[in-house]
Structures are given as C-alpha cells and as structure tokens.
Amino acid sequence: MKAVGGYGGGVASPGSVSSVSKAAAATAEAEEDLVVEDVGRGAMGDAEAEVANVDHAEEEEELEEEELELGLTLGAAKRGKATPAMWGPCCRILTAKDFPPLASLASPRSPSASSVSSSSGTNLGGGGTGTGVAGTKRAAESISPDVGSSPHPPSQVVVGWPPIRAFRMNSLFNHFKDNAPEVDAAVAVKKAIVPSRAGNDSQHQGSRGKVMRRSFFVKVKMDGDPIGRKVDLDAHHSYEALADALELMFHKPTKASALAVSVVVWMMADGAKISNLLDGSSGFALTYEDKDGDWMLVGDVPWGMFLETVKRLRIMRTSDANGLSKSVHFGKHQDFYRQRNDRKHPAYGLQPE
Amino acid sequence: MVGGFRWAAMFPDEVWEHVFSFLPADADRNAAALVCRAWYRIERRSRWRVFVGNCYAVEPAAAVRRFPEVRAAAIKGKPHFADFNLVPSDWGGGAEAWVEAMVEGWPHLEELRLKRMVVSDDCLELIARCFKNFKVLSLVSCEGFSTAGLAAIAANCRNLRELDLHENEVEDNCLHWMSHFPESFASLVTLNIACLEERLVGLLHRVPQLVDLGTGKFAAQHHPELFSKLESAIAGCKNLKSLSGFWEAGPTYLPAIYSVCEGLTSLNLSYATIQGPELIKLISWCKNLQRLWVMDLIEDDGLIAVAASCKLLQELRVFPSDPYGAAQPISLTEHGLVAISAGCPMLHSVLYFCRQMTNAALLTVAKNCPNFTCFRLCIMEPHTPDYITRQPLDAGFSAIVESCKHLRRLSLSGLLTDLVFKSIGASANCLEMLSVAFAGDGDAGLHYILSGCKNLRKLEIRDCPFGDKPLLDNAAKLETMRSLWMSSCSVTLGACRQLARKMPLLNVEVINERKRGLPLELQPDNCPVEKLYIYRTVAGPRSDTPSCVWILR
C-alpha cells in the first residue's frame, strides 16, 4: 500500500507533541502530595513532559512499564519501551490498586470458573446474587497462568472508559451500595433519581441549595501538620481541581520519607512547576473517610460518587496508606483493586520483555 | 434574470407546500430551498419540524426567524463524550437561550426534544406556561432541573401525550410531582420516568392507554399487595408496547408483566440486575420483541435463547453489569453476539459490551448481518487483541465495514492499527458517526478517516496517537461535518490556531482544565491540547464559555 504522504509508518508526526507526562514523585515540599502517575504514552518521539488531562484515570499499560519509583521521570522510562499500539496521554491517579503486596488477598479459586453466582453479600433481595463483587477473585486471576479465554483481566480505571453513561454507572454503584433489602423507598428513589454525575453536580445543585446533600465543606488534615483545614468540595469539579486547591492550602515544605510508591501524582503544565512540587521523594496519599466510616483512597470512584460519600479528607503518609488498602471494601464500595502482576498480563497487548 | 424560474409561479404556494411535505428528509427540504427565492420562501414557511444537532451551530433567534411555523423541535447540546465525564461540567449546552427564543417565536410549539442540555426549572416552567398546545416533552441525558419543574409540566400541559425523561440528572425535591397530573389523563401515551412504585400503580390506573412505560426502581420483593396491584395495573394497559426500568427488580416482580409480554416490541431491562435464567424465562414470553436492552447477566446462553425466540429483533444492547471487572467474570463472550447475528435476520443495530473478541467472530457477524446500520462494540479492556490469535482486530472490523454497506454508526474497540482506518475510510460510505478510542498507530489513521468516509458527520476520538498533520491536511473536511472531538491525542495548540485562522466557519474549542500555568493565549504553539472540540457554526464564537474553554479565532 502506498504510504500516505507524510504519514509514514505508524509513527505520529514528530512535530506533534504528545503530552507525555512525567510521573514525578511527590515532593518533599508537597503539601498534599497528590502525585499523578505518568500515563503519558503518547506517540513516540521527543514529547516533553506535559500536563495531560488529569482525572481519576488510570492506564493499565502505564503500570506495565513504570517502576513506580518516586522522583523518576516515569515518562522517560516508558518512552524507551514504547509499544506498537500507541495511545494518547492520559493521566492517572494511583489508588489502592497500585499497592503491591495486596496479593495477600489472592484466593485459590480458579479464575476460569464459569459465572456461578458469587456473592459478596451485596445482592438486593431476589434469589441468586448476580453481580456480587468479589475482590479476592481478581487477585486470583492475575496469579493464575493465562488461560486462553478465561479470566478477564480486570479493567483499569480510566476516565470515561468503558463508555457508560454516568447515569448508568451511578445506578450500578447505587445497586452495590444498597445491600439492605429493607431500603427506604424514598431514600432509594433519591438515590436513583439524583445520582450525581462526576463533576457535574455542583454547578446546578449548588445553586438550588443542595436539597439532598450535606454541606460541602469537609475537613482536611495532613499528617504532620497540626492544623486542620476545611475545603469546599462544591467548588471543584474534579479530582485535579481538588488537588490544586489542597496543594495551595498546604503549601509548605514538609519532609517525608522516600517511598517507592507514589499515590496520586499531578502532572504539571510546564517543567518549571514540576520541581516545586515534586522534587525529592515523599509518600503521601490523599484519602477520605466515607459515609460508612471506612478510609478509602481518593480517586477510586467517579467524582460524583465521591461527593456523595465523602465525609472528610486526610493526607496521610503512604506508609500508613499501605495498611489502608488492605481494608478496602469490595462489593459495597466497588473498589477497583488490581495487582501489580496484572500489568504483565499478555492480554494487555504488550510484549513481555 | 427576470424570466428564470417562472415556472415556480405556475402553481400557488399551497401546491408547492404540499409537494414539499412529501420530502422525507430535512436535507431534501434544504436542497429545495436553494432552488429559487420562491421555493426558499415557501419551504421555510411550511417547515414544521427542525432538528438542531448542535445547539451552538446557529443562533436560536435566527432559527426561529427562518422557520416561523415550527411545531416540533429537537436540539442537542453537549458533545457525546460528555456522557462519559470527559467534558467539563460547566462547558455549556444551556437550554435557556433556545427556550426563550422558542417561546417568543414558536408559540404553537407542540413537541420539544432535548438531549445533553442543561435545562433549568425556569425553562420547564416557561414551557409549561407558554406553549398552549404542548404535547411531547423528551429530555434525555439532561441536567439542571428538579421534580418541581416536572410538577409544572404535569400540572399545566393538559394535552401531554408523551413524557420521556430518561437518564437525566434530576434533583428530587418534589416527591409528589406526579400527583399534579390530571385525574383523567387520556392523552398520555408515553411515560418514561423514574418514580416511586406506589405512585406508578396509581398512575397506571389513570392511563390505561399507555403505550410506552418506563418505570423506576422496584423495591425488593416483600410487598405482595403491591405486586398484585402492579400486576393488575399493568395488565390493564392493553396497549403497552414498550417497557423499561425495573431497576433492581427482584425476579419475583417479573411475573407482574408476563401478561403484557406478548405485545411488547421494546423491552429495556438494562438497569435490572436480573439473572440469566429469569431473564430467559421473561424473554421467552416476548415473541414480538424488536428492541431489547439487557445487562450482560443474560450471558451467552441467554442470547442464544433470545436468538431462538425473538425472530423480529432489530436492536440489541448489552450493557456491562460490572464495568471494572471487579466481580466474577460473566460468561458473555463473542459467542453470544454470533448467535444473535445468526438467529435474528432483522437485526440492524447492536451495542455490545464484552471482554473478549476474535476476528473470526466478527467476520461471521459481518457475513450474517450485512444490514447493520449501527454497530458498537466495546471490549472493555483497551487494546485487547483477538484472544485466540493475539492479532489486532483490524480484520474483524474491516469485515464489518466492507459487508455492511448501510452502516451509519460505528464504535471501535480492542487492539487496532492504522489498517482498520484504511478500510473504514475506503468502505464506510454511509458512515455518519465514528467513535474511536485507544486505537491506531499514528497520523495516517486519522488521515484515512478524514480523507475518506464521505458522509461522516460526527467523529469522536480519545487516546489515539493522532497529531496535527491529518487535521490540517483535512481542514476542509471539518466544515462538512457537524463536529469533531479529540481528547488525549497528540494535537498541539499551534495546529488549532492555524485551523481556526484557516476556517472561519468552525469554532475551534480548546478545553484545558488545568488551572495552572500560563493562560492559553500565552502558551506556545507546541503546547499540547488536552481536549479539542471543533464544530461548524454560522453563529460565530459562543459567549457562554467557562474558564476552561478557549475558542480560537
């Protein structure tokens, strides 16, 4: 086939800058250390580190290659391993899934079990249990050898993917949360009728006086900082905006121990900024306490769901956060846990090294 | 030229109006309007239905002025990817400007359909008060209103025939809004809402002529009296053709609708987490089903049963019950899709979420269903190859576009190289809407699409390595399309600036949600663009952009 003029082989034109963002480590200065992991895997070439769209997105293929070492330009590390299937840059918030040792949750169950109903206690009335969420199964999947058609590598969390309307996602989520058969009808309707679309709600419900919600000011406390603050979640439409705000709020140098795991990494708009926030290495995780009193890592769920359940925030050291992820609740909260090993799964279309 | 087109005056205007009323498509009427001034005048005065695919493509006042006799209007706002949270919440798409212009210029409006727009309660109240003969309200994927606004509609629109509210973000501050409907509501034929089931039963008794019913959540099964009330109420709706809702319906509720199953042509169970066996039982009653929306809980076995009993099926949508793969894998694979394609000869529209696919299966589907008009396949893991051969799915999708000559809508997924775009560009001559994610190798992919696909109207792309060159090389194509969305690709600000300068009839919107760094005007040309939305317009740049949106000129 005749090469399309100027389009060459499968390489994006060198002039095009792909926003490969660097996953810089959370800095020691980092106020709240919201480190967004670099997901930039743009077309080849000398893409500078740029800000890509920061949302609660996560690219599995990124995990494949990154070393998760703070302070390193993960983008650089990645570029060397560019894969034939290129995708555009996205950014990613690392959350519970990225914590390594949670393989302890692996269960010996065979991943190629057919869809026998597995319950994790979240069925709503009715006989069988449909889509109970069983976190342990996912760990098992990754451990078992890749068997042809069987286990489906779990989807990673990328903003807007899979392409399901926010409304539908919210009703799935509400279904999982509703594990009590005796659910108050009015409450159920409220949940059903007023799911908040990620990032869309504050605009209008705010003006209406937020009949259905609590106050949007939530407390934020950062480990090592004796002074707690409050942040107005209503003022933000996304995790990145919230991170910006928290950053400003807690902007002062703090020391933190270097850890190999960054939690939420923000990509910066220009190189100069990166150093301010992300130099050195420190491990802080942004976590929140939800309605049930559990501490979750921020970024797991769409923004709207987050707003519905968040009670307060805590910027905790990742050394503590490691313990946190073990307490992640599946089913009820629909956490998207993933194993490190998953990244090496051949089904992801990447060539094993 | 005085003598030209004298023949237009041979017939009185009414005759031409009557002739135009046979033109099936707006495009045909548009063409007629270009023939001569007389036809332009006659056509515009007799057009009573308008469709505005992009609310910013034209000024509301201009549209109202041009077509003064409109009775039915449909308007769309936000880009499609707004459904998946890719568009900032304050991007725009407000309905006020349109509603105000319509109230002013179309007092006889009977029908309004809005999609992906921000509709306030004030808008709903205006609609309820000002359109005396209002019959149809459809709000899909909208937000910004509450049940108080709906109460105004229910109370004032005495001739309401159709109320379709699905997948909206509605604030529920007026729980009894449905009681505002009149006691005897003989005109209501379509009701698609989310509501309390007790109210539903009461309402059903008032509207036995209902043809289309959408319900909300059914509580768990411990309301036996409610069950029998519901059963008799639904049985009383002898004309029921379309049923949807049943959120979280326990299987014990399903028998309540068995009585109407045979008459159903449309069934939407995609919010109901009913398991395979119950689903199969229910669907086996629905022999006349033309449209079926379900969750993947139906599994391959269920789809095989559907293929056996629903021979009239035209549209199938299978949604994922577990999008993030946190639960046990569901046994819904390519086999279900192949079974449906083999068993349902009238199938033309498919939306299918699954986790695995093969080229062979797609080839089979393509061979079985050359009449597809809409094929949307979503393999939930990005970059998933053919799980047996480990090859990209280029061959499979190419087979689809080559076989389905009437394909109007296509969504791709899985591991794909530029080759698939070559096929699409070359073969998809009827394609109007294409959705691409995590695909392609480089610029050539986008170039194939933009230089081919002669009927392309909407193109939406995310996370693909497409850059500036194909965009600039195919700038003229963009004016023939309604819109282009690109996010997380490799487009730079410089290219957008060039495009905006070159094409005055396009609005080039750059969306950058990061608040830090320089404002966009000061950014250099090589600054990457996170999100780009380009659409043709005769209205110039809009004035309601939020701070994260820049319209380049």
From TrEMBL, chain A:
<feature type="domain" description="PB1">
    <location>
        <begin position="215"/>
        <end position="320"/>
    </location>
</feature>
<feature type="region of interest" description="Disordered">
    <location>
        <begin position="105"/>
        <end position="156"/>
    </location>
</feature>
<keyword id="KW-0678">Repressor</keyword>
<dbReference type="InterPro" id="IPR053793">
    <property type="entry name" value="PB1-like"/>
</dbReference>
<feature type="compositionally biased region" description="Low complexity">
    <location>
        <begin position="13"/>
        <end position="28"/>
    </location>
</feature>
<feature type="region of interest" description="Disordered">
    <location>
        <begin position="1"/>
        <end position="33"/>
    </location>
</feature>
<keyword id="KW-0927">Auxin signaling pathway</keyword>
<protein>
    <recommendedName>
        <fullName>Auxin-responsive protein</fullName>
    </recommendedName>
</protein>
<dbReference type="InterPro" id="IPR033389">
    <property type="entry name" value="AUX/IAA_dom"/>
</dbReference>
<feature type="compositionally biased region" description="Gly residues">
    <location>
        <begin position="123"/>
        <end position="133"/>
    </location>
</feature>
<dbReference type="GO" id="GO:0009734">
    <property type="term" value="P:auxin-activated signaling pathway"/>
</dbReference>
<comment type="function">
    <text>Aux/IAA proteins are short-lived transcriptional factors that function as repressors of early auxin response genes at low auxin concentrations.</text>
</comment>
<feature type="compositionally biased region" description="Low complexity">
    <location>
        <begin position="105"/>
        <end position="122"/>
    </location>
</feature>
<keyword id="KW-0539">Nucleus</keyword>
<dbReference type="Pfam" id="PF02309">
    <property type="entry name" value="AUX_IAA"/>
</dbReference>
<keyword id="KW-0805">Transcription regulation</keyword>
<feature type="compositionally biased region" description="Gly residues">
    <location>
        <begin position="1"/>
        <end position="12"/>
    </location>
</feature>
<dbReference type="GO" id="GO:0006355">
    <property type="term" value="P:regulation of DNA-templated transcription"/>
</dbReference>
<comment type="subunit">
    <text>Homodimers and heterodimers.</text>
</comment>
<keyword id="KW-0804">Transcription</keyword>
<comment type="similarity">
    <text>Belongs to the Aux/IAA family.</text>
</comment>
<dbReference type="InterPro" id="IPR003311">
    <property type="entry name" value="AUX_IAA"/>
</dbReference>
Automatic annotation (TrEMBL), chain B:
<dbReference type="InterPro" id="IPR001810">
    <property type="entry name" value="F-box_dom"/>
</dbReference>
<dbReference type="Pfam" id="PF18791">
    <property type="entry name" value="Transp_inhibit"/>
</dbReference>
<dbReference type="InterPro" id="IPR006553">
    <property type="entry name" value="Leu-rich_rpt_Cys-con_subtyp"/>
</dbReference>
<dbReference type="InterPro" id="IPR036047">
    <property type="entry name" value="F-box-like_dom_sf"/>
</dbReference>
<dbReference type="InterPro" id="IPR041101">
    <property type="entry name" value="Transp_inhibit"/>
</dbReference>
<dbReference type="InterPro" id="IPR041567">
    <property type="entry name" value="COI1_F-box"/>
</dbReference>
<dbReference type="GO" id="GO:0009734">
    <property type="term" value="P:auxin-activated signaling pathway"/>
</dbReference>
<dbReference type="Pfam" id="PF18511">
    <property type="entry name" value="F-box_5"/>
</dbReference>
<feature type="domain" description="F-box">
    <location>
        <begin position="11"/>
        <end position="52"/>
    </location>
</feature>
<dbReference type="InterPro" id="IPR032675">
    <property type="entry name" value="LRR_dom_sf"/>
</dbReference>
<keyword id="KW-0927">Auxin signaling pathway</keyword>
<protein>
    <recommendedName>
        <fullName>F-box domain-containing protein</fullName>
    </recommendedName>
</protein>
